[in-house]
Amino acid sequence: MKLLVLSHYAVISATAALLAGCGASQPPIGSLGAAPQSGAIATHAERGGSWMLQKTRNQNLLYVSNDVANEVDVFLYPRGSKVGVLAGFDSPKGECVDGSGNVWIVNQTPPEVIEYAHGGSSPVATLSVPGSSPAGCAVDPITGNLAVTSQGDQVAVYVNAGGTPTTYTDSHAGGFGFCSYDTSGNLFVGAGSTRDGVLVELPNGSSSFTTLRFKPQPKHLHISGVQWDGEYIVAGGVAENTNSPAILYRVQVVGSVAKIEGVTKLGSPKLAPVTAQFWILDKTVVQSTNHGAQIGVWPYPAGGGPHHLIRTAGRRTVWGTVVSLAQ
Q1: CATH number of this structure's domain 4-324, picked from the four choices 3.30.160.620, 2.40.50.140, 2.120.10.30, 3.30.70.120
Q2: Which of 6, 8, 117, 220 has its CA 20 to 30 A from that of 42?
Q3: Which residues fall within 8 angstroms of residue 13, CB to CB, at 6 or more apart?
């Protein structure tokens, strides 16, 4: 098997184009909060439904799925101004981005994955997901194939992000969660219970999963996200009902061994429970805090305290957190 490097549950499911764009210039990060709600935003909020402010297509956008309000909130990234809401979901979960900046959002009821253009407010495609309880998704940077995980230890892979999927199962995984491709087309999936999380790999061209053994083995490993950071697969997250920091393990994979090459710890404030997805982009990592009341932006891979916090509308259950780059 090819040499691989792993990084946090925030597997980057973006394509090679997105990875190449990680070094693109961004607005400076400082002590920035969300901008006050404008009259236009207030008007949209009163009317309900999906909306997106004009002139967002040339901006980097942060998409945050909220399975209590059944919507996806959209913010400028990293500044944090709210610019849109995507509505009409029933328990939206994980998210992923393709090389064109299109955002895929996993919906649990009915089980499906829905595509939106960068900055768009209406779906451009909807795919039915076999089985039940879909959780996360990722886009293969080589082929453009779309993978959708389900908590029943199943991955559905759609060729060119369309048509009828091919399904792959692992009866020993203990429940699939978030996932990510690396730039060689290998798929990595976080699995297992909150106390005994594991990482599995579906190698490029294979039809069976490999369970990866961490070296050294972390104590009480919790995997709430998996993401390719351009060099490593990052796996990890924060345990449910704990005040401990989120821990992201940067991993290099050889055969069935996932060797930990580095650790990133995200400091206070208290992070969301194990179900929350993280996202790594360039020198930052984004993670839900306070059960969704805020989104934190931390330096990556240094970790420590957050650069700043982005406020959301009250306490929410945030699952998906992804950044779509302006094209």
Answers
A1: 2.120.10.30
A2: 117
A3: 96, 97, 137, 138, 139, 147, 179, 180, 181, 227, 228, 322
